[in-house]
Design goal:
- With 1450 residues, this protein is mainly beta.
- The chain has 14 helices and 97 strands.
- The strands form 27 sheets. Strands 30, 31, 32, 33, 34, 37, 38 and 41 form an 8-stranded antiparallel beta sheet that branches. Strands 50-49-46-45-42-53 form a 6-stranded antiparallel beta sheet, with no helix packed on it.
- Strand 49 (753-758) and strand 50 (763-768) form a beta hairpin.
Length: 1450
């Protein structure tokens, strides 16, 4: 037996010397004569290929595919040998029996064969013919002779090298630059072969960029500079034109060539020189501190952003004209420009007056009047503007305001607080990246909400694409985008862009930006969206219609269940206990099933002539097609007669189409019986793709994925009462106790829940047995919370059975086919797998130890059984090996090979076999094998090949290796990755990743502990690799950089890295600054900032590993500047209190004040990212250069998340300069919370100075006087900022009124207290509220501030006497109030000058519309702001025909 087994693996490559050696040393039992055939194989279309002579018999090649694999290694074809034919290409060879002894055949990688002259190809070349390469001239003569013999076509030859860009058909991202020369243009067919090798896919046709076919070489040579390479598919239009390929470029190596005049002219047109004049307005604060850029758009291309740089601080000042000279490519005829700024610096707001352009090449002049603010807090909030070219005073393209409707998905935690940006692309350019700032809703991007934004741009023509994303900042940075609809007012067209995906680093594919193409206008967008939702619903609900499930069908119209009675009658009037209302599912195919009566097994629900009735279950009229609607209901349609559906009227009787559709219902809610039986394993789904999950900290979230961590085991306590135990974490139960809902229960009475079924929605609600009336509920971010059930969806859970249980704890199993199958958790992944598009591998728990099949009992193979064969080379040693297997559906491992096996494994030239059970990982594409413990430490491994064979289907996967592994040799690794090889080529290449690890320059930052790195990409991960082989003997020293190499199968675009440090004591802790991963294959670089200590403490637990995500693209110069910029670097240590509730979920910000200037806000991070946990120290590095001597800080948070309250212990500041040991310790020891302590979320602390007295912490009493006008009150949040001679107090929320329960009421005075470091003399205050829209207003009379500094008490009055509202007064919700100066009434008059304005409306004027009307007053010293003309009395209608209205404006 052993001999026959070994012989089957002995001959794999018959011509290798090693195989011959193994043949001579092994014995075979020859039972029949072996007939050998001597065959010669040639290459299709290549007469220079001399042919390969081979001996073929049934021992050397078992199958025809084995012969193709062997030939693929010897005949150089782009995709290996796929077809063999007779010399003239007339007959294809499909089996070994078709080959004839002594004959010749042609090999090709495609079906079409190119005949060759066998006579010439079979001639043995003379020595001088093979001693040097064939010249291009000789090659041309040879091909000409072949053409005379009829083996080729007459082609045009290229005489001058020409540069050309080649695109892949339909994918502009895949392109190659080639040079057309004599070598690659001998024939058109040869050029197509050359392109196939270059593009790595079979190229059969070429097209011009506008879709015309290129039939021959002559047409190719005449092409403008770019072509599209296609296979056999038709031409796919795309944006090939916008890439600027058509510019002629000088070729390397022919710089001295003289070009014709036409070429010289076109080359001179490559570049353009422009003179740009930018005029800044002469109004107050019109200048900007930001960087200004300009983009020119022409009918050929755009210039891209060009920054208008110059001497810092002297550009774009008030009333100035700045002149620049810029260089662009040939953009063609100019039709618009975009000018804007980066919103940087202390005063970024900019009022641009005009932009002038002069084309220094043609002399054309262009003038673009602007006359508007470019600022987030001014006008429309835009920081860029598009301006069309004017022709005879009229724009060549209209300026339009696009209405952008952004719909956030209706999933839990779908909303975001990050900044969202959009770019819109059309046939006439793009809008550039625009931040979506002002929504018509008070809060943007909430769950299930549609926000409307306005984007102004020069008309783009037909829209075809958008790019939308966010910056990943904010307390809730993940976002589920449903769709975007853009309304074009010029064409009155709506463009729909469907997404239905996450933009989240931790969800889906990890991307936070997506490109979306417009829905085809030929198909109704609403219909496509409906079909998509139906597919998603089917993926989530199809489990209900599995074979053997017992169902109830509920009708919402009649509030009853469908019942099938013994007399074959059917109605929809049954109650939940009616025995005739139960149906068993019999699956026919796809979504076609038979619903057999559970009580009367020979009857099934049927449709006969459009009527629902009962028939024998074997008849075709009982086959019903299930159509699931987006609301989860099912429509049952006849499979035999499409269009006929099961319908009932209001009385619950059977109806059909003849009775009309009024009062007819054909949708049914499907309920599965036996969901909550004892021992069942279920999902508690909260949406189509989310489920209630148990987090590692014991908390629960309804935004979890429908995977193993979301499985719950049902423990039935009594009738309708259950407990839910986590499958992943046994012993942890869902519970409600002390106002908390989490998964830390121990199985006591707090874990008992009553199942309350909602028949209308197909859901259940979980009521606490201990706390009657309290249910498990969800907050908008998905976090669980005990709530009162008021019928809202936040208490609805949609159960899905993974494994059915028993009728009762001591009963017998439920008799369904589902339970008869073995439960394997890897097979129980729900429909989410089809609905989500994430490609990250699912890593399963470690598999059991794998045994050698030659040991122990033998059993029949199952669908999970595989045979692993490891063939060793010239070196080997007894050891353990660990295997990981990766597929497009997940990963499995580690799998140990050889542990506790008595056989001598992995010896030289030995092939060992193992039988393993693999979880379903999809299509396997790579494996990783790691060398374990060696008996002899100096031993080495030489792996020749690893083979996987599926025992049931006999499918074989090959992983050739020829790799050396060692644990002692520094030049060799002890882990390797192998890609799957098909047709002689790996499906993914092996990439060498260069990893640079930067250790921080802090004290005791170095470590001698082992450090591991795992790289994650689109195609799985590299596994954890020990970083041990570096060019420096001692690794991870303070301030040093260590270089390592990680060899792995290509991971695609990198997504994150996992860094791990195994330190045994605090002295071995390591401070990592960053990790940079470079990939030579595509010359890309990823920067992963760390700036943290490893290990670190979170929630009282020490974590030794951390995930790092790549930062945005930075140039090398920026990186160098960042590394060198340590002059103003400080280390900030934030210490959170040591009791359980001290941590926060909010985002924490810091402001630092110096004698020269202030810095902030500096965002330190969010509590949602494992920061600011109880009893933790969080360390940050910030740069606060040029502030001067520090005198105070302010720290606080945004009060976001489900538990924002924070107890801050202290803050330590340490200067990181090597020449200074300055360290500042600032005790805080107070709550920063609205509901605890002093009710403030901010705290100011003074910094002691050796040369000056420390500033005192003062209490400012703020008296806010709301006016006595009608409608003066407000219930919105009001904020204030006090500004004095020593800085400001920051934006503070006026949260608690000390004298009134309800704040800011009509004619009321409210008192508030704010603590701040002494501000000196108060000069002004900024007061604002967060209300928007009509009716959201507040009339503020005045603010009086009292405070005491030293022994002297002071009172400062800030008069206002005006409205704060978008539709009142000046339309502002923010006002800057100046302190009233005593004894100077004239100055007070000028500071608050008022105007009485009378407006008379003409009699021909139409009726007034609901819009704003503003007034601007001009004088010798400038002009006023826009004054809103709003009625003094609410409800009064202004601007009626022939009416005179009076307004008071200031």
């Amino acid at each position: 037996m052993s001999e026959s087994l070994s012989s089957s693996y002995s001959v794999n490559q018959p011509n290798s010397s090693e195989s011959e050696q193994s043949l001579s040393t092994r014995h075979f039992n020859v039972t029949e004569p072996v007939v050998a055939k001597r065959i010669c194989f040639y290459k299709s279309g290549d007469p220079q290929f001399n042919g390969i002579k081979m001996v073929i018999n049934n021992r050397s090649y078992k199958t025809f595919d084995a012969l193709l694999d062997s030939l693929s290694k010897r005949v150089p074809l782009p995709f290996g040998v796929r077809n063999i034919s007779t010399p003239k290409g007339r007959h294809s060879i499909t089996s070994l029996e078709d080959l004839e002894d002594g004959k010749s055949y042609i090999c090709s990688h495609q079906r079409k064969m190119k005949p060759i002259n066998l006579e010439r190809a079979s001639r043995k070349p003379l020595p001088w013919q093979i001693s040097r390469p064939v010249s291009a001239r000789r090659r041309a003569v040879q091909l000409a002779k072949e053409n005379e013999d009829g083996f080729g076509h007459q082609e045009s030859k290229i005489t001058t090298p020409k540069k050309m860009l080649v695109f892949k058909n339909g994918d502009v991202r895949l392109r190659r630059t080639i040079v057309l020369g004599k070598k690659n243009t001998q024939t058109f067919e040869a050029f197509l072969d050359y392109m196939s090798e270059l593009m790595q896919y079979p190229v059969a046709k070429l097209y011009t960029t506008d879709g015309r076919k290129v039939p021959n070489l002559q047409a190719l040579i005449l092409c403008s500079g770019a072509v599209v390479a296609a296979g056999r598919e038709p031409f796919k239009p795309s944006n090939y034109e916008s890439l600027g390929y058509s510019r002629p470029a000088r070729l390397l190596g022919i710089a001295n060539r003289v070009y014709p005049k036409a070429n010289l002219k076109s080359e001179s047109e490559n570049t353009r020189k422009w003179k740009v004049s930018v005029l800044t307005s002469d109004m107050p604060s019109a200048g900007t501190s930001s960087k200004v850029y300009i983009i020119l758009y022409g009918d050929h291309s755009s210039s891209g952003p060009i920054f208008l740089d110059g001497e810092k601080g002297k550009l774009f000042q008030r009333g100035s004209e700045d002149v620049f000279t810029i260089h662009t490519g040939n953009v063609g005829r100019l039709y618009k420009i975009r000018i804007g700024h980066t919103n940087a610096g202390s005063c970024p707001a900019w009022h641009c007056k005009e932009v002038q352009l002069l084309n220094l090449f043609s002399g054309e002049q262009f003038s673009f009047p602007v006359n508007r603010w470019l600022a987030w807090d001014q006008a429309d909030g835009e920081i860029s503007v598009e301006l069309p070219v004017l022709h005879q005073g009229q724009p060549v393209l209209p300026v339009t305001v696009y209405e952008v409707h952004v719909t956030t998905g209706d999933l839990w935690n779908a909303g975001t607080e990050a900044d969202v940006y959009i770019s819109i692309y059309g046939e006439k350019g793009d809008t550039g990246s625009r931040q979506l700032v002002r929504s018509q809703k008070p809060k943007k991007f909430l769950k299930g909400q549609t926000d409307i934004f306005l984007v102004e741009a020069v008309h783009l023509g037909h829209l075809y694409k958008i790019v939308i994303g966010h910056n990943g900042l904010g307390s809730g940075n993940g976002w589920y985008l449903d769709k975007v609809v853009i309304k074009d007012p010029v064409t009155d067209l709506d463009y729909t862009f469907l997404c239905h995906r996450w933009l989240d680093n931790g969800q889906d594919d990890g991307n936070i930006a997506r490109g979306l193409t417009v829905t085809d206008a030929s198909t109704f967008p609403g219909r496509k969206e409906l079909e998509m939702k139906r597919e998603e619903t089917w993926a989530a609900e199809k489990w209900k219609f599995q074979e053997g499930n017992k169902l109830q069908l509920y009708n919402r119209l009649t509030h009853g269940f469908i019942c099938l009675y013994p007399d074959s009658s059917v109605d929809a009037l049954g109650d939940k206990k009616n025995k005739y209302g139960l149906f068993n599912v019999i699956v026919k195919k796809g979504n076609i099933s038979v619903f057999r009566s559970h009580q009367i097994p020979h009857l099934a629900l049927a449709l006969v002539n459009g009527y629902a009735t009962g028939k024998s279950k074997d008849k075709s009229c009982c086959e019903l097609c299930i159509h699931l609607q987006p609301n989860g209901c099912a429509i049952l349609e006849s499979a035999r007669n499409p269009g006929h559906t099961v319908m009932f009227n209001l009385q619950g009787k059977v109806a059909d189409e003849k009775t009309g559709y009024a009062g007819i219902s054909k949708e049914f809610v499907v309920h599965v019986k036996g969901v909550f039986h004892h021992g069942a394993i279920i999902l508690l789904k909260t949406s189509r793709c989310q489920a209630l999950t148990l987090r590692s900290d014991g908390g629960c979230s309804g935004a979890g994925q429908q995977q193993q961590e979301s499985y719950w085991r049902v423990h039935k306590i009594g009738s309708g009462v259950c407990m839910f135990e986590s499958v992943r974490n046994p012993g942890m139960y869902l519970k409600i106790k002390d106002g908390q809902c989490n998964g830390t229960g121990t199985g006591d009475e707090y874990c008992h829940f009553k199942i309350e079924k909602n028949w209308e929605a197909g859901s259940v609600s979980l009521e606490s047995v201990r706390s009657k009336g309290i249910y498990v509920g969800l907050l908008p971010d998905g976090q669980t919370k005990p709530v009162i059930n008021i019928g809202e969806s936040n208490t609805f859970f949609y159960p899905q059975v993974i494994k059915f249980g028993w009728v009762n704890p001591t009963g017998t199993p439920v008799e369904t086919t589902q339970e008869k199958k073995d439960f394997r958790e890897s097979e129980c992944l729900p429909g989410k797998a089809q609905w989500q598009t994430s490609q990250r591998p699912l890593v399963f728990p470690p598999s059991e130890e794998m045994r050698n099949p030659q040991v122990g009992e033998c059993s029949l193979p199952s669908s999970d059984d595989w045979k692993v064969s490891v063939l060793m080379g010239s070196a080997g040693a007894r050891a353990n090996a660990t295997l990981w297997i990766y597929g497009d559906g997940g990963a499995d491992g580690p799998i140990t090979l050889g542990k506790e096996n008595r056989k001598q494994l992995f010896l030289p030239r030995q092939e060992d076999e193992f039988q393993v059970k693999l979880k379903r990982v999809g299509n396997i594409y790579k494996i990783r094998i790691e060398l374990g413990e060696l008996l002899n430490k100096q031993s080495e491994w030489n792996i020749r090949r690893v083979t996987l064979q599926h025992l049931m289907s006999k499918k074989t996967l090959n992983f050739p290796a020829n790799t050396w592994l060692s644990k002692s040799d520094d030049d060799r690794d002890f882990v390797c990755e192998l890609p799957l090889v098909e047709a002689g080529k790996p499906i993914y290449p092996i990439i060498l990743y260069h990893v640079n690890v930067y250790t921080g320059d802090l004290e005791q930052a170095d470590t001698d502990s082992p450090v591991y790195l795992c790289i994650f990409g689109e195609r799985g991960d590299s596994g954890q690799r020990l970083l041990q082989k570096s060019g420096i003997p001692v690794k991870f020293l303070r301030g040093k950089v260590n270089a390592f190499e990680v060899k792995a199968v290509s991971l695609g675009k990198l997504q994150k890295v996992l860094l791990r440090c195994e330190a045994n004591s605090k002295s071995q802790y390591w401070y990592c600054d960053k990790v940079i991963v470079r990939e030579d294959e595509n010359n890309s670089e990823y920067v992963f900032n760390c700036e943290r200590w490893l290990p670190f403490m979170s929630q009282g637990v020490i974590h030794s590993e951390m995930e790092l995500y790549p930062q945005e693209f930075q140039t090398t110069q920026q990186l160098k500047r960042q590394e060198a910029a340590n002059e103003g670097d400080w280390k900030i240590t934030v210490v959170t209190g040591d009791f359980e509730t001290a941590g926060t979920t909010a985002t924490v910000c810091l402001y630092v004040y110096g004698e020269n200037k202030a810095s902030g806000p500096i965002i330190l991070g969010s509590g949602k990212h494992q920061l600011f946990n109880p009893n933790s120290e969080d360390i940050f590095k910030i740069n606060i250069r040029d502030l001067g001597q520090l005198y105070k800080i302010r720290i606080g948070h945004d009060n976001a998340g489900n538990d924002p309250s924070w107890y801050l212990e202290e803050i330590r500041l340490e200067r990181m300069s090597p020449f200074s040991q300055e360290e500042i310790c600032l005790p805080i020891e107070c709550w920063l919370a609205e509901d605890k302590g002093e009710g403030d979320t901010w705290r100011e602390v003074a910094i002691r100075n050796s040369t000056k007295e420390i500033l005192p912490l003062l209490v400012y009493e703020i008296r806010v006087h709301t006016g006595a006008k009608l409608g003066a009150e407000t219930d919105f949040n009001v904020y204030i900022n006090l500004i004095g001679t020593r800085g400001d107090a920051g934006k503070r929320k006026l949260h608690r009124s000390k004298n009134n329960k309800v704040k800011f009421q009509h004619g009321q005075m409210d008192i508030f207290f704010i603590k701040a470091v002494s501000l000196g003399d108060l000069e002004k205050v900024l007061i604002s509220h967060d209300g928007t829209g009509p009716g959201d207003r507040w009339f503020l009379d005045k603010i009086v501030i009292n405070y005491k500094e030293g022994k002297e008490g002071k009172e400062v009055v800030f008069p206002c006497n005006r409205w704060l509202g978008e539709y009142q007064d000046d339309g502002k919700t923010v006002e800057e109030l100046t302190a009233e100066k005593a004894g100077n009434p004239e100055m007070a008059f000028f500071n608050a000058q008022q105007w009485r304005v009378q407006v008379k409306t003409d009699g021909d004027s139409p009726e007034p519309q609901n819009c704003k009307r503003t007034l601007v007053i001009y004088g010798s010293k400038g002009k006023s702001d826009e004054l809103l003309l709003s009625p003094q009395d609410p409800g009064h209608v202004c601007f009626l025909p022939r009416a005179t209205d009076e307004f008071i404006s200031s």
